[in-house]
Specification:
It catalyses: a UDP-3-O-[(3R)-3-hydroxyacyl]-alpha-D-glucosamine + a (3R)-hydroxyacyl-[ACP] = a UDP-2-N,3-O-bis[(3R)-3-hydroxyacyl]-alpha-D-glucosamine + holo-[ACP] + H(+). This protein is α/β, with parallel strands linked by helices. The chain is built from 4 helices and 40 strands. Helices cover about 15% and strands about 30% of the residues. The strands form 6 sheets. It has a 12-stranded mixed β-sheet with strand order 8-11-14-17-20-25-28-31-34-37-39-40. A 10-stranded parallel β-sheet has the order 9-12-15-18-21-26-29-32-35-38, with no helix packed on it. Strands 10-13-16-19-24-27-30-33-36 form a 9-stranded parallel β-sheet, with no helix packed on it.
Length: about 325
């Protein structure tokens, strides 16, 4: 897709200095700009690059005052960073605005779907699936029987939505996710062999949930694994059966949450955190990366370490951890005396 400086200025309500007809078809960093690319200048540290960049168009603040000759066409706006972000959002909307049904696909006769849909090649839509309006289902997506997908949902290639899954409005599910696979439920018999416990529940995603690539969310043994409105999950997270995550909680990559744990709303959980099963974590909790959580956590706690301590206690303790060799030497010298 190509855009002229005039078109971009119209979207951003900006002022052009330079060639209004110059075209761009790609984005670049200002220091790596090439002909035909669009970039921006917001951080003063990068000001020197505006005089050497090969980018065809650069978005700058209206307060920018050039000290040397500039070859790039400028678009002056109130806030270059926000305007560039707005442009990225617009670009994504245009790029992802696919409609229609590609071939080959399989859509069960009992499945239904709303207007402005897109179903990519090799997608599979099972029996009694209900799909809302403006839903984008990219190639090689599997949607199991009796699942329900509400309006304005985007599911990227290679994702599997297992049967009975419910997905709310405005959700984004990135490539390679598995939503609704069996939970890790086994029971030992009298001979010590593990027998599978049937996993008969489902997964429910609220509205405006975003799930990163490769993340897995297991169906409940009974009832539902529930991800509530506004939750944002990073890549490669494991969420076990019957977990509940409260509104607007964000979780970074490679975190694992064991079965039946309940996490409150507005929590921030760092990468590679491990959380045991059957505990409750309160609202507005912050957990630092690589922490291990093995107990209930109250509202507003900030935790770090494994097993996790309060953030303040961890930092105080760390002072002693790193001084242990010196303390051991001192004790050895005292014992010799």
């Amino acid at each position: 897709m190509k855009f002229t400086a005039s078109q971009i200025a119209g979207i951003l309500d900006g002022e052009i200095i330079g060639n209004p007809d110059v075209e761009v078809s790609k984005l670049s960093k200002i220091e790596e700009g090439t002909e035909g690319s669009l970039t921006f200048l917001a951080n003063p540290k990068y000001t020197s690059y505006i005089y050497s960049t090969k980018a065809s168009i650069t978005i700058v603040n209206k307060t920018f005052d050039a000290e040397h000759n500039i070859s790039t066409t400028l678009i002056l706006v109130e806030d270059a960073y926000k305007s560039f972000s707005k442009l990225l959002e617009y670009y994504n909307q245009v790029k992802l605005n696919k409609t229609g049904i590609e071939q080959p696909v399989y859509i069960a006769d009992s499945a239904t779907y709303g207007a402005d849909h897109y179903i990519g090649a090799f997608a599979y839509i099972g029996e009694n699936v209900s799909i809302g309006e403006n839903v984008k289902i990219y190639p090689n997506v599997y949607i199991g029987a009796n699942s329900k997908i509400d309006d304005n949902v985007t599911i990227f290639p290679g994702t599997q939505i297992q049967s009975e899954t419910v997905i709310g409005k405005n959700c984004i599910i990135h490539s390679g996710c598995v939503i609704g696979a069996d939970g890790f439920g086994f029971s030992p018999d009298q001979d010590g062999h593990y027998q599978k416990v049937p996993q008969t529940g489902n997964v429910i995603l609220g509205n405006s949930v975003e799930i990163g690539a490769g993340t897995t969310i297991d169906r409940a043994t009974l009832g539902s694994t529930t991800i509530k409105d506004g939750v944002k999950l990073d890549n490669q997270i494991q969420i076990a059966h019957n977990v509940e995550i409260g509104e607007d909680t964000v979780i970074a990559a490679q975190t694992g949450i064991a079965g039946s744990t309940k996490i409150g709303k507005n929590c921030i959980i760092g990468g590679q955190v491990g959380i045991v099963g059957h505990i409750t974590i309160g609202d507005r909790v912050k957990i630092q990366a690589q922490s291990g959580i093995g107990r209930n956590v109250k509202d507003d706690e900030v935790l770090q370490g494994s097993p996790a301590l309060s953030y303040g206690d961890f930092n105080k303790s760390y002072v002693h951890f790193k001084n242990l060799p010196k303390l051991v030497d001192r004790i050895d010298q005292l014992e010799k005396k």
